What does this fold into?
Amino acid sequence: MRHTLSVLVQNKPGVLARTASLFSRRGYNIESLTVGVTENENVSRMTIVVTGDDTVVEQVTKQLNKLIEVIKVSDLTKESYVDRELVLIKVTADGSNRAEIIQLVDVFRARIVDVATKSLIVEVTGDEGKNAALVAMLKQFGIKEIARTGMLALGRGPKVIQSDKD
Amino acid sequence: MNLSGAKAVLKSLEHEHVDTIFGIPGGVIIPIYDELYQQDAITHYLMRHEQAAAHAADGYARATGKVGVCMATSGPGATNLVTGIATAYMDSVPIVAITGQVTTDLIGNDAFQEADITGITQPVTKHNYLIRDASEIPQVIKEAFHIASTGRPGPVLVDIPKDVQTAITRFDYPKKVYLPGYQPTYEGHLGQIKRAAKAILEAHRPVIYVGGGAKISGASEEVRALAEAILAPVTMTLMGMGVLPAEHPLSLGMLGMHGTRYANYAVTESDLIIAIGARFDDRVTGKIASFAPNAKIIHIDIDPAEIGKNVRVDIPIVGDVKRVLQKLMPMLKQTRTGEWMEKVERWKREYPLEFEETGLKPQFVVREISKLCPDAVVCTEVGQHQMWAAQYFSHRHPRNFISSGGLGTMGYGFPASIGAKIGRPDETVFDLAGDGSFTMNCQELATAVAYDVQVKVAIFNNGYLGMVRQWQELFYDRRYSATKLSEINFVKLADAFGAHGIRVDSPNEVAPAIKEALAVPKPVIIDFRVEPEECVWPMVPAGAALNEILDAKSRKV
It folds into this structure.
């Protein structure tokens, strides 16, 4: 099963390397990992998507918690949450199919962010299902390149995951 | 107060009450060594290999309970520490390793003697630091000692570039550490402790399984009290030897691959395993699916990540084992009949540890050492002799058995014994060694002689890498690939370094040689020329269940 972990860490050099290497050395698979500073500049939030059964994810969580710079680990999958990924897709496009692509992009509430004679870049933000559907639809035109941010996520509602102190 | 980074390092160490450092200098750590030269509070022991410096710090830490400190230069100095750091990490030993690093402007340029030691040691340290500004030194050293010695202890490495050592900084030693992500749990959850008490009261065949955590926590008294209160047998891992004295009637000695038959039988038939500061290592459990198949498991450990890692646990208790046991005790009473202990006693009588007393047997040598110096601190290397040391030495004290359990580092014991002897100078310290292991760090004879550290080394010289040979005999049709060792004259070796050497060929020379070793005021090597093809029994083959035990009778002749 897929789990989305929200991990608050101290914003220090080396934290990303420490976290990423923990996954490889313990044999856990990361599907995606994003990191960025939070409302508190001393704290960064990592959003890590991992697959594994509950025991594996429990071990991942415990091992993450053992890292000195990790402040808090929450498994968002246990509650209701919003997750989003931004994907840039460079599609083969010329006069013959450009309009069709633009129409498709509109349906997905995505955007065209670059136009050239033989290609377009589409920017889409969404959860995994939506992004996968758009990519599947665009395949017929020929996808040249894809870049993804990795999944970002926050729990729904007023509840927050914060470092206890700062 | 303004001072150099190097001086700030030493001042910080003084604040942490460090009086002993094991190390070797080199190009980029000269400023710190220059400060060492100009002070008396800290004694530095010059080792002959950085690996040995890390092991000596580790042996010092295990023998005393204090944080051990080792020091090395950048690049090869630092990478040589790695095996020692990994050894300490696997056995939860508090050491702080301080390394020099190339100047900050050269970091990342593949400079002379540059190695990314924080990157390299990341998976084998509890935490590590690369200091980029001299002002961070006091804070980092404070944190390093705090992290190394609290919670589940472990090694911390502090890497200090040369220009940081020479920069001038304000020195103010912090009183507190601020580590929001590091708050070990010491007090066990009361509800869980109550559940554990209930399970103990209901159990018919409980077994207490004790690991190194009980030593670290100083819980010997509590373990003994628990065992006596509920009349449960106690088995110990290699790391837990000595927590309950071997001669205690409830002691079953070691369990696992080379554990006693009765310990392994007791675990297999148990209906309640009380795991105390142990981590269900594969050498202990054998085949996981058959480990204590009918038992509930109570697991008390300070590291939550150990709980449920290898086996399913019914009642987890995260906390310091001493404190948890103190809370648990008042909830217990003796409810069982003597039936279970009678059964265990029967196994003990039926399947004692034994060996055939012909020729010079290593087990006999261990027993003689145990008889003549029962209160000695015993360090070991790794292999057959290590198992015989665990089995046949009558361990009495928790901090007197020092061995590389998790990583299984050959070459550990001798430098560790030097560290242990420096930490506890008034006690007899033995290194029980194989001829293979001993030569992996025998250069430290120079250190022992230079500082007159009078450790006694007993080499179980069988001319083989014995444990591998045993596996080759049992599982590889005696194809002794790369296990025969060439002859070394250890008496001459001792002599060359200025130590004292004794050679022993027959059983009747054993006791006199040990007495001589104790009497000679020098580091001593006794070269026991033991039976070359002796095996360690009993043995549970890797991957087999704990009750599938081989012994001397299963040997193909």
User: Anything to note?
Assistant: Residues 362-537 of chain B form a domain with the Rossmann fold fold (CATH 3.40.50.970). Chain B touches chain A at residues 118-119, 122-123, 126-127, 130, 147, 179-182, 303-305, 308-309 (CB under 8 Å). The mean pLDDT of chain B is 97. DSSP finds 22 helices and 20 strands in chain B.
